[in-house]
Design goal:
This protein is mainly beta. The protein has a domain of about 190 residues: Neuraminidase, CATH 2.120.10. The protein is about 0% helix and about 50% strand. β22 and β23 form a beta hairpin.
Length: about 290
């Protein structure tokens, strides 16, 4: 799975939206590197993104707003699944070798934290106390993903959420729920919908019923709002280069969008939680062509 690259005349644009932001702000643009999946730093000063298989830091407040590479030792090329440790000093990253690594936000050596169990491990969530990871466990890449919870070094606990593919699991800010998208509500292949399950165990709760294919629910730190990406009906998986819509909803009512941001994107747009620490805004990526 080599890292993605821009096509001819394509650009990667980081935008910022939020519950009170009707017109999103263009924060950064590149026509040389495909960047994906912003994470906001705990102090609100930086965004961390992946590009060309590496991790990059963007100074949100700088007028220059250039990307600075974070250099790690012994880290394979990355995919777009990375989440900050709640301590604000480290980051967990999924690599193309199928494992999850932990490193300091300033770079340096990394530690592999996923078990050598023959599965792929696609990270999406870290518990609020920093003790556990939520990731998608996949055997063969064509197999449906399962929710796995890991207290390193493990072994992981696989949670039953139904037969359909699951993706994007992450905890609520209070640690009581795990949010995700799942194909278990329908027999229509690929028709992902948003759901959650109690961290302590219990039935899966559907959050919204829609005609769109909905992925990657992200809760704001104050637990008042959420964002997710809606793909066109009939979409299978979460491919790149489609007309999609990033939606902002109240965390108490996912069927009532309060902001809608149509864009050209999909894969890489909002794969991981990108809310700012003050819950007023979040970052997402568009990939316009021409």
């Amino acid at each position: 799975m080599p890292y993605r690259m821009l096509t001819v005349r394509q650009r990667a644009q980081i935008w910022v939206g939020g519950p009170e932001i009707r017109q999103p702000e263009l924060l950064f643009e590149s026509d040389t590197m495909l960047i994906e999946a912003p994470n906001w730093s705990l102090d609100g000063a930086f965004l961390f993104v992946n590009g060309r298989g590496r991790l990059w830091r963007l100074d949100v407040g700088s007028r220059e707003r250039g990307l600075a590479r974070v250099d790690f030792e012994g880290l394979p090329e990355l995919n777009n699944d990375h989440v900050l440790d709640p301590n604000g000093e480290h980051i967990y990253m999924s690599a193309i070798d199928g494992h999850i690594y932990r490193g300091h936000l300033d770079g340096g050596p990394v530690d592999r934290v996923s078990p050598d169990d023959g599965y792929w491990h696609f990270l999406h969530g870290v518990s609020p106390d920093g003790s556990r990871l939520a990731y998608v466990q996949i055997g063969e890449l064509a197999d449906p993903g399962k929710l796995a919870l890991l207290d390193p070094p493990g072994p992981p606990v696989v949670v039953d959420t139904g037969e359909g593919h699951l993706d994007g699991p992450e905890w609520s800010p209070d640690g009581k729920w795990i949010y995700f998208n799942t194909e278990s509500f329908t027999d229509d292949t690929g028709h992902a919908q948003l759901a959650r399950i109690p961290d302590a165990g219990g039935p899966v709760e559907r959050l919204v019923t829609s005609d769109t294919v909905d992925w990657f629910p992200h809760i704001s730190p104050d637990f008042q709002a959420a964002a997710y990406i809606a793909f066109p009906a009939g979409t299978r998986g979460h491919p790149a280069d489609l007309d999609v819509e990033v939606r902002v909803v109240p965390a108490s009512n996912w069927s009532r969008p309060i902001q809608r941001y149509p864009l050209f994107g999909g894969q890489g747009t909002i794969n991981v939680n990108s809310w700012s620490p003050d819950s007023t805004r979040f970052a997402f990526v568009a990939y316009p062509i021409g």
